[in-house]
């Protein structure tokens, strides 16, 4: 018996259940961020697309907002994966699977960021102070 009066096996089971529930909540939050962020990008982009003055930039703004929602959701899902490592017995296979999942999500985040900004992260300094990469491109034309 432990000092709390719990059997060690039962205490471990309660801990795993709590951490499992936390992981599910964090995963749900990540998915909700992507879904509701996507809906917000769409709902916010429709009025811009209907106005003549903002029609030309509506697609880019909507795409950037959608990308931001996806990036934030992916980052929250990575947090859930990291929390999940507390539950999983650390075997070589479980570490490799977690590593692969995190690498895939980081690569997705990286490619989305490059897609949204239009510039490699290490080349951002070239466009710093010039506005957006699109503005820097049109200014150089």
Can you give me a brief rundown of this structure?
The chain is mainly α and 141 residues long. The chain has five helices and no strands.
Please give a structural write-up.
This protein starts with 7 loop residues before the first helix and ends with a helix. By secondary structure, the chain is an all-alpha fold. The chain has five helices and no strands. The model is unreliable at 133-141 (pLDDT under 50). Helix 1 (8-50) packs antiparallel against helix 2 (55-84) and helix 2 packs antiparallel against helix 3 (92-117). It has helices spanning 8-50, 55-84, 92-117, 124-127, 133-140.
Question: Which labels suit this protein?
Answer:
disordered C terminus, mainly alpha, 5 helices
Which value, in Å, is the CA radius of gyration?
A: 22 Å
Topology as a string of helices (H) and strands (E): HHHHH
Helix content: over 70%
Q: Number of DSSP strands?
A: 0
Cα(first) to Cα(last) distance is: 76 Å
User: pLDDT below 50 for ≥5 consecutive residues: which ranges?
Assistant: 133-141
Number of helices: 5
Estimated structural class: mainly alpha
**Proportion in β-strands:** under 5%
Shape: elongated
SSE blueprint and pairings:
Layout: H1 8-50, H2 55-84, H3 92-117, H4 124-127, H5 133-140
């Amino acid at each position: 018996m432990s000092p709390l009066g719990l059997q060690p096996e039962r205490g471990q089971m309660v801990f795993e259940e709590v951490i499992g529930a936390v992981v599910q909540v964090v995963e749900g939050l990540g998915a909700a961020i992507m879904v509701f962020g996507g809906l917000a990008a769409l709902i916010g982009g429709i009025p811009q697309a209907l106005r003549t003055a903002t029609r030309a930039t509506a697609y880019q703004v909507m795409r950037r907002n959608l990308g931001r929602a996806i990036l934030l959701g992916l980052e929250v899902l990575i947090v859930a994966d990291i929390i999940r490592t507390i539950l999983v017995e650390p075997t070589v296979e479980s570490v490799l699977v977690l590593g692969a999942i995190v690498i895939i999500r980081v690569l997705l985040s990286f490619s989305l960021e490059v897609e949204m900004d239009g510039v490699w992260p290490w080349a951002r300094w070239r466009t710093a102070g010039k506005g957006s990469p699109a503005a820097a491109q049109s200014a150089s034309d």
